[in-house]
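Subject: two folds for Thursday's group meeting

Dear M.,

Sorry for the delay on this. The cluster queue was jammed most of the week, so I only got both jobs back this morning. I'm pasting them in the order they finished. Each block is the input sequence followed by the predicted structure tokens. Could you check whether the formatting survives your parser before we put anything on slides? The first protein is the one we discussed after the seminar.
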Amino acid sequence: MIWGDTVAYWARWQGGRTAIRFGERDLTWAELSDRASSLAAGLADLGVAHGDRVGLLMSNRPEFIETVIACARLGAIVCPFNLRFTAPELAFVVGNADCIVVVTESALRPGLSLALERAPHLAVVDADDGSFERLAGAGRTASPVAVSPDDPFFICYTSGTTGDPKGAVLTHRSWFYASMVRALQGGINLNDRILLPFPMAFTGGLALSLVAMWSGAQLVLEPAFDPARALHLIESQRITVFMAVPTIFQQMSLHPNFASTDISSIRCASSGGATVPVPLLRTYLERGITMTQTYTLTEVSASGITLPYHQALERVGSCGVPAMHSEARIVDENGNEVPPGTVGEIAIRGPEVMIGYWRNPEATAATLRNGWCHTGDLGTMDADGYFYVVDRAKDMLISGGLNVYPAEIERQLAGIDGVLELAVIGVPDDKWGETPAVIAVAQSGTTITAEMVLERCVGQLADFKLPRYLVVRPEPLPRNMSGKVLKADLRRQYADLPSTASPIR
């Protein structure tokens, strides 16, 4: 279960085969293992030892994986930082983790300015100025270090939307189980080619890269997602595994090249982060691609609950059943399990769960209770044991004393012609306290009307759930690095909507 050993195994088994493809550059398994070993020796010279933290501020490139494996061999802890963090946010996480070294690249290095002011001793290794290559390309061998499966491997920081970022501490064991389950569910093996469409600094991207390391598959890296480029790579590289958030699948399906691109090589497609709308499922099904759907979160190593691809249309709206070796249940505010069909908080227990938040015992105690990880997400479980995500607890609004779940309204509105993306938020209301508002983005040359929105909802949703306001904006919805809509930003931006817009009903 030690990740340095995993890569060493594949270096022996298939050393000459490509482990990572990045543009025109191929890195074999043997090269990856050797360079990681040399980098580990170099990091040790900089003072990194077992249990020390190494920050990683880097876009998708082979050096990211090399750093991860080097740290695994030292027993050091990797701290991947959100590429969208501001200088103060970066200074906080670097200081909170008490990093010895930060590995970065020239384009992102300026973001460390405040962190370096606060910690002048901090060593910086840059993948573009030669300092990284001097360590990784030196051909050295790191001294053996005893590493346990239960040693921390990553501190993955949350986005910090409700305060300072919290660092989920994830072990070699937790990532081993999470990667094993994903690989087994998708039948992923050393003959596969995996295209990674989002940053490895995001836990979902990190999870996909570790699946490749676990299974011996080839990882095709791109510095950023572009739908045209992704479609080209799927066809030209014969990509067999593609995992993304629904937004990415949607962008690809709307691209002019989608119909003419051969995507038949994909045999394992998976989506997470949000429920996939039925029209989008059907769009890919018409191309011969079925989609597995997963409910995940950082605190459980981007694992959790999964709906098999062959049940996507049979169990519409469900995120599936717990991962292998894991349990899930729906609980009330006291942690007691509630009957099937009752809305409560989703709780997960299993080997993939974090051991706690770094240097934050209060948050750890609030989230990890009696062995269960309390997710903060609201959901239900049906009589057959299938789970359904209702909404984030913090996104729920209360209208006239009744709970309204924006995600339920969003599912009802999915697939309206001309809508690129939309989100439902709660805005203040003098009579009801809060009321739903739809914030939408339209395709160029199309119009979204109140009648289109209400037609989808009337007769399908209770009257107190019907949207009261519609905003069609020209700019995309704000999203975090994982592609999730930043609803807190939208609520702040449209807090005065009732005083500036007319109701649609």
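Second protein, same layout:
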Amino acid sequence: MRLSALCLLTAGVLASCAPTPPTSAPLRSVETYPDYRGVTIPRVVAPLNFMCVSDSVDAWAANLSAGGETLSLGGWGRKVVIDDDDWRQLLSDTTARKLDVEVFFRANGEFSRDTFSISISDDDFDPYVTYRLIEPGYEVWNAIQIVERDMTSFATRILADNASLDGKCMNCHIHGQQGRTTLFHLRGKGGGTMLFRNGELRKVALRNDSMSGGAVYGEIDTSGRYGVFSTNVIIPALHSLGSRRLEVYDTESDLCIADFDKRRMILSPLVSGDSNLETFPCFAPDGRSVYFCSAPAKPLPDSLASLRYSILRIGFDGEQWASEVDTIWSASREGGSASFPKVSPDGRFLLFARSANGTFPIWHRETDLKMIDLADGREVDVSPLNSPVSETYHTWSSSGRWVVFASKRADGQYGRVFVAHVDESGTVGRPFVIPQRDPESDLLLLKSYNIPDVSPRPAPFDRSAVEEICAHLFLKTEDDGHIESIGGKSDHVCIESCRKL
């Protein structure tokens, strides 16, 4: 079946169909952005619009074929833009496992032809990705939004905007795998953690009198009852080494578990204290153990070059931490420093970021993603995920068949969200950047997509709910600075305000 042709308008010019390319156009590779050659996509993803990078291109034509469907397009300019309905029709044949693309670009009056293929997967895909939009620098954190994007379309929704929250820093948005518990941190005076759980959006203080600070990096277990967090005293410092601009390190960091049902923090001397720096915890899928990064404490910043984190594991039975800690990946044996361990939903694979040293891999261009098979400890090849610049802030889909991560590979400066397929054996496909209606929009956006996280369903709150709660809290803080505590014990979780949604 052949779908109707799409003829595009150039700005200010009357509509007319693009020139018809000759069938004998020379075959040569044309540089495009995004480059979708050889990637694997979920069948439900939004149209993969792309553009020719060369400014000399003034017209194009394309034939896209999948199964029994063929879509023929043509237009002026450099951008191949596909109608949403035509794209859905093109991929409607569920037996089709491959999308063949033939594209013609005209430059200086001459057409050239390029062809490539895209694999199509029906593996379950979490369509909602949430990320911070933030300038990629340490000095302009006061303009931040937390945004949710539906990757099956081009729809976005702002969940929080610090322009309406007294300019406070917002960070580390976290979805539970079931998508019904979610949180993010709000920093500064009157700040805390915005937690949605059991139909309520509330602000909680995730700390107690024994902790050096509040919760920072963390994860929610699959039940939604527990959250595991690190408490970090974070120091940013300008770098004096060549192309490096910034180093971020911890002078203190410990681990804690928040029991949201009993409103308490659960601590252990094995993952706290001054002798080691613990950070980036995550739960095993069954919630019975915690993976985290740990390094021996050193004089900082003088010893930053030798600061390297290993990946450890400790048990948790729902009431207390275990009495032993296991080493899963040794920094001294393997070389380098580990960050952000994330376990696949089936418990088989551990994906993490490896950099030369330190604990803030986004500022290390050499940072790559690594993966080990937890059954035998062997390293699994995930080289398709990596590039000459940093890859990090990765997360698994709830099916375990996709990983989502941030990469600066497009221009070396701005982080963008990439998606890659992972099969049952751990083989990863070539990643693709999440598509945009205008394929040039990412290149023109002077903000990074930071800390992406995915969910099978949309976040159960919006910016108006956040602003309503925070307006009350700011007023309360200005009045007397009082935080109402629940339980009255040193392990309490403070509750300041909540709203049924």
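Two things I noticed about the second structure. The two ends are 46 Å apart (CA to CA). The longest strand covers residues 246-259.

Cheers,
T.
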